[in-house]
Amino acid sequence: MVAPTPNSDAVEKYKQDEDVQLMLRFCDGDRAAFDKLVERNLSNVCGLVYRFLGNQSQVDDIAQEAFLRVLKNAHRYKPEAKFSTWLYRIVANLCFNVIRSRKTAKQISIHSAGSEDSKFDLPDETQQNPDAGLVGDERSKRVSEAVAKLPENQRLAIILNKYEDKSYAEIAEILDTTTMAVKSLLSRARVTLREQLEGYFKND
Fold it and tell me: Does domain 1-118 have CATH number 1.10.645.10?
């Protein structure tokens, strides 16, 4: 299959994104550029997966699968956004697949339903995760547990906005929706979080 010709305007727009340039070099046959991409993005991917799923045991597998998909789909890559936006969309789809599998498993065996999905501990930055000092802290634990109870799209939107500093447009592309829909997701998520945490922080 012939690789698509990248739009010159898009390349110009995102030429300041080093990851885009690395990906284009990889598409041109530079294998070392892919290794550099992994090196630059692996910790962020692992952090996103951990925050979204709350399960450390699945982080490595999903991260590995995400970069394998980058390899397999390199011939279709177009630099029409930041590389991280494209990568996070792959990661998001993999995470949604895991959630669907969990729901299916629970339907098959109600005895397996329970504790693991209800927990959402933020990762420790000292262990290559971005939230040093928060694990075990009661306040952050309450916040993360509240985030874990959000519907999946709202949860991912909040994580991308709060922790990954993604714009509405970038989140929209990652979730394959519109910026207005993203604003709505974030608004509903914040209202829900405020309602869930109001009593706790009022008494804090």
Answer: no
Specify the range with the lowest mean pLDDT, choosing from 25-39, 85-99, 108-122, 155-169: 108-122
Is pTM beyond 0.85? Reply is no
Question: How would DSSP label each residue in the chain?
Answer: -PPPPPPHHHHHHTTT-HHHHHHHHHHTT-HHHHHHHHHHHHHHHHHHHHHHH--GGGHHHHHHHHHHHHHHTGGG---SS-HHHHHHHHHHHHHHHHHHHHHHHHHH-GGG-SHHHH--PPPPGGGTSS-TTTTT-HHHHHHHHHHHTS-HHHHHHHHHHHTS---HHHHHHHHTS-HHHHHHHHHHHHHHHHHHHHHHHH--
Give, in words, the CATH class of 120-204: mainly alpha
Question: What residue ranges do the domains of the chain occupy?
Answer: 1-118, 120-204
